[in-house]
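Example record

Each entry pairs one chain with its bound ligand, pyridoxal-5'-phosphate.
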Amino acid sequence: MMFSKKLTSTFAEHRTPFYYYDIDLLEKTLQVLRKESDKFGFHVHYAFKANCNDSVLQTILRSGLGADCVSGGEVQKALDAGFPGSRIVFAGVGKTDEEIELGIDASIFCFNCESVPELQIIQEIAERKGKKVDVALRINPNVNANTHKYITTGLEENKFGISISQLPDVLEVLAECANLRLAGIHFHIGSQITDLTSFRNLCTRINEIQQWFRSRNISLEHINVGGGLGVDYYAPDEKPIAEFAAYFSLFNEFLDLNPGQQVHFELGRAIVAQCGSLISKVLYVKNGLNTDFAIVDAGMTELIRPALYQSYHKIENLSGQLRNDKLAYYDVVGPVCESSDCFGKRVELPSTQRGDVFAIRTAGAYGEVMASNYNLRGKVRSFTSADLLKEKA
Ligand SMILES: *Cc1c(COP(=O)(O)O)cnc(C)c1O
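Structure tokens for the complex follow.
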């Protein structure tokens, strides 16, 4: 069991719900990631959109990763947190003029560009500012990530990226853009990818695309392969750290690089998912006609993934585990007025009572950042292991 008796009773003393971040686990995860990526000299950017909690960001900053941002707000957050502009990449299909200006003023490492009109606007703004800007083309590799359809991004009919067949036109446009420098190519095929063959297919496709650039005598300084490495939502205690060794060595083995070419990664979920839990208390146990409901004080407003992607999160009744109560089945639901506000159906849990502390596991990625105040619910706090023990309830 991940949570000690002491931690469980500390949880019980605090007003719930709240996000709990295990910074020790995050540090261990980052150590493994650095060890496995450094072996091949790979550069890793942390995908800010997965979690922008200050304690989490500071831990990641200390480990030396760069930042991968998808909005001006994230670029500003990265700068404020202390990430140097030279280690910030900026992707997104709909960058506003203000966001582009912010990136140019901060001399970010690279804009990952997703369309011709975007290139033209960046050129216009760069010219006005008298700056030279590095861009990478986000290419749609048409590789299936075998993941939920809402989080697959690399198929042909997708709003992201530029399709391969349009590359000749894009290069013609780029030739007219005196203030842009083509520094690399960028890919991102989706998220929560656990079958590594998808990444292998991506490598094959990248090699073909590189061949195409070589035949036109265009040398690219870097290849950015994006992120998407998945975690084990079913076994957060047995597999707390993602398969970094297999993941990085796959790219080392299958990518066919030019001499001196850099490889960049943008990982979000694999870094932060397992260190976070959503801690909640049972408000009521309601016995329905055929179903017993454990109604908890957290809802889709704090963790929308089950409602949005039908995703699984392991749910634990920490109080019931300590009592060693016999098991029963519950639908674990939140208080929000939507039927989809359900964390799990027929979850086997120790016999549950009002006030029991629940942990919804693997909530560190795409949890707090997606929180809303729907139903005018209040903003939820977050605690790290250290400040939870200091803080008053
Ligand atoms: C979301 C995103 C990532 C990170 O995805 P994870 O699945 O969290 O690793 C990386 N790159 C881009 C462009 C993204 O949009």
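The pocket of pyridoxal-5'-phosphate is lined by residues 47, 49-50, 68, 70, 91, 188, 191, 226-229, 266-270 (CB under 6 Å).
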